[in-house]
Amino acid sequence: MTTNGGFEPVFCTIVPPHVLDKLAQAEDPALAGPARRTLQRDAFERTQRRLTTVIGAPAPAAAALAGPGSPNRTIYDARHRTDLPGKKVRAEGDEPGRDATVNRAYAGLGATYELFLSAFERDSIDGSGLPMDATVHYEKDYNNAFWNGEQMVFGDGDGEIFLDFTLPIDVIGHELAHGVTQYTANLAYFGQSGALNESLSDVFGSLIKQHTLGQTAAEADWLIGAGLLAPRVTGTALRSMKEPGSAYDDDVLGKDPQPGTMDDYVHTGRDNGGVHINSGIPNHAFYLAATALGGHAWERAGRVWYDVLTGGELTEDALFTDFAGLTVKAARARFGEGDELTAVTKAWEQVGVRTL
User: Fold this and answer.
1) What's the rounded mean pLDDT across residues 100-108?
2) How far is CA 300 from CA 82, 100, 151, 283, 334, in A?
3) Which residues are catalytic?
């Protein structure tokens, strides 16, 4: 599949490889087995994504049931297999069924659509009403959720470390936001541009949760994946935008490695150059800007971040300084020399990223 301008989609998961790597080394086979199978499946899907990018794939079907300003959702059930998309179990407008996972996926797609439409006037992932497809009950004990360039896929978790991946609405929003990035700035999935890619998904995933709950920046928990970790895990979520590095500290999973400032930037060749790790830095900058401004975070800070993502100036290989500079420019263009400009500038200064 190619997207607007010939953009190349990437395979993006919510659980970072370094978490699964740690889990795969556990002595307990009930913990290590599902993690190893998940890593193997992720590697296969990643290879398939690269192959599809090379040979091309059919263009997505046009929205048939929905008009402008309405979502077109379809939920499929993989029945614990890996053939995608699986059996169609709920279409747009269908009443909720007995499967709570199907219902949550449907609602999460709708909440994502609503945030982008109401806050940013964007009609679906591509801005032109792209149908939103999702598959649930993927594989057995699959410990991840992913956007593969064409659709969402959710595992049920192993029940020991991870629960059902449709439980946190921000996980759904995070993965769909990778699609928005794919159709706009198409940030390369490596190093700082990859960390920006991940951070933007966390930002919009958090905004989707806040929008659904009607929360202000002060009321939000700023956690990504709260409710995903099983009771035995010592932790609250996968990541914290408020305090990167504090989401979990567990005997099996290890400690959350995310830095919150450039002083602790992690240089690594793993995880595509640390895309899930160093994303904590721009995540924290957004949190600082949003909470400094107060109110609903999607109205000002979120608007600035969205303007940069879709403004056409953000290059595929952008560094943190490039993105930061563009947010300052966007804040000035949209809001003038006011509180928004001050909050954005100070936020980047606090995390050690230059804006010039």
Assistant:
1) 98
2) 41, 34, 29, 16, 9
3) 175, 276
